Amino acid sequence: MSELPKSTGAPARQNVTFPSAGGTAHGYLALPPSGSGPGVIVIQEWWGLTDHIANVADRLAAEGFVALAPDLYGGNVAHDSGEALRMMRELPVARGVELLSGAVGHLLALPEVTSESVASVGFCMGGGFVIEQAAADPRVAAAVPFYGVVQGELPDFSRLKAQILGHYGEQDTSITKESRERLVEAIERQSGITPDIRLYPAGHAFFNDGRPETYDPGSAASAWQSTLAFLREQLG
């Protein structure tokens, strides 16, 4: 990775490559104006590493974090829900977790990262991977799933170290109350950690301002402010 330019105004941005899962992975990295800060992984929706996900990384960087959004689809971006579903199904959970582990290692190795552990923020499919990755990797100290969907069986949470702040829409028909309660019960029973699950008067993908049909500005703003406070509390 070439050296990132330092900035005192806007976040510095760069497409990066790093070793992961036995190969070379790609991602989008954003540095804060100060040039350094705690590390945060940003995990994509089922659409891929879109402009929206890169913008989330930029917003985190503007708030003082070093944000890395790994590309789990190897450069592919879905253009409709059918294609997105196919691409998500072609990414096994274990493979995604392996790729994310490489991203965590890369982020923690950067001299610009001041934290000894990282946080993870993800959306929809990425929210599920936030949960899966936190369960598998004790280097994740804070996990923030936005409407996170866990594919298949729940992971083993006995190694979980991360505090969890989850954001879910009350009108999200794809994630039932029962599934949320099942997730919370499993986490509490296996790890002793009680997730902070917050509900909003919105549907699925309420944070995605690139999709006006789902975006809810009030819910998104509230979830964003609580996320920033949570990340600062957990990472310092």
Automatic annotation (TrEMBL):
Keywords from UniProt, A to Z, are: Hydrolase
Upper lineage:
Bacteria, Bacillati, Actinomycetota, Actinomycetes, Kitasatosporales
The molecule here is called: Dienelactone hydrolase family protein
Q: A single Gene Ontology molecular function, please? A: hydrolase activity
Please report the stretch or stretches of sequence annotated as the Dienelactone hydrolase domain: 27-233
Matches recorded under Pfam families: DLH
Species of origin reads Streptomyces siamensis
Q: Which InterPro entries match?
A: AB_hydrolase_fold, Dienelactn_hydro, Dienelactone_hydrolase-like
**From what superkingdom does this record's organism come?**
Bacteria
